Amino acid sequence: MGQTQTAEFAGIVFFRRDYRERDMLVKILTDNFGFKMFFVRGARKRGFRLGAAILPFTQANYFGAISTNGLSFINAAKDVEHYQNLLQDIELNAYATYLLELAAAAFGDSQPLGGWFSQLQQALSLIDRHFDPAIIVNIIEVQLLNFFGVKPNLQDCVICHQTTGAFDFSESYGGLLCAAHFHLDPRRMHLDQRTLYFLRTFAQLDLRRLNSIHVKSTTKNNLRQALDQIYDNEVGLNLKSRHFLEEMKIWPKH
Ligand SMILES: [Zn+2]
Predict the structure, then answer these.
(1) 128: CB partners within 8 A, 6+ apart
(2) N or C end of the chain, less CB within 10 A?
(3) Other CB atoms closer than 10 Å to residue 114's CB: what's the count?
(4) Is the pLDDT assigned to residue 251 strictly greater than 90?
(5) Residues 92 and 72 occupy one common structural domain
(6) What angle do CA 219, 97, 252 make, to 5 degrees?
(7) C-alpha 186 to ligand 1 mean position (Å)
(8) What domain count does the chain have?
(9) Packed helices 90-107 and 116-128: angle between N→C axes, nearest 10 degrees
């Protein structure tokens, strides 16, 4: 069963599902313990005292018992806040679900996320406040590539380290090529400069400093296609939430 320790921790409820007749299993992204599955006894009973604290897209400070590799437990919660729009708006909900599913795939269970807890918290908060969810998702996708082992060089030309001028992205070189080195990869992605600019910017961006962002819809489509190509070829995930976004037709297809 592994070891159990009592702890107070911040968490964001990712999803939950019914378990047995009266109980629930609740997956929570925690600040110090990563993604953990909690067994919540009596959660399906009417008037359950922790009901508000285990709704999806709730953020709270919890007190409970964390198990290293078995189910964990919640005893109490305080400072309970809901991402109201993520709960109520099916489109925002779909983006937020994808974001957490992607992070869960990148980090796995029980892996502490370090600064990524607040980065994801900020991403959800921005989507909840109606920042363009497609762009917030793009930013997280670019940054999570490192955790999927892709580590693309989006700083400078991988050959000569030129930092200005025209660039393209080369999957075989794992990063940028400057115009002088385009010839090295005829199968480079042929991205337009605006799309590349945003990919490079997103790689560095601290979401806590994001005040506003506006990206033209053609560039948004290009970003979506570029990231789909990189994720399909180099990460190879098959996430339900991504298919759902495609089905909702809010996710451009290529
Ligand atoms: Zn170069």
Answers:
(1) 57, 83, 84, 85, 86, 92, 96
(2) N
(3) 12
(4) no
(5) no
(6) 30
(7) 14
(8) 2
(9) 170
> pLDDT (tens digit, 9 = 90+) per residue, 158-189?
999 999 999 999 999 999 999 999 999 999 99
Q: Cα(132) to centroid of ligand 1, in Å?
A: 33
Residues 218, 99, single domain; the answer is yes
Same-domain status, 17 and 101:
no
Of 66, 82, 98, the domain-final residue = 82
Distance in Å, CA 202 to ligand 1 centroid: 21
The last residue of a domain, from among 55, 82, 109: 82
Q: What CATH number has the domain bearing residue 10?
A: 2.40.50.140
Confidence tier at 248 by pLDDT (50, 70, 90): confident
Give residue 60's domain range.
Answer: 4-82
Distance 180 CA to ligand 1 centre (A): 6
Q: Which residues surround the ion ligand 1 when the cut-off is CB under 5 Å? A: 157, 159-160, 162, 178, 181
pLDDT in tens, 62-102: 999 999 989 999 999 999 999 999 999 999 999 999 999 99
145 and 161 part of one domain: yes
Q: How far, in Å, from the CA of 158 to the mean position of ligand 1?
A: 7
CA-based max dimension of the chain: 67
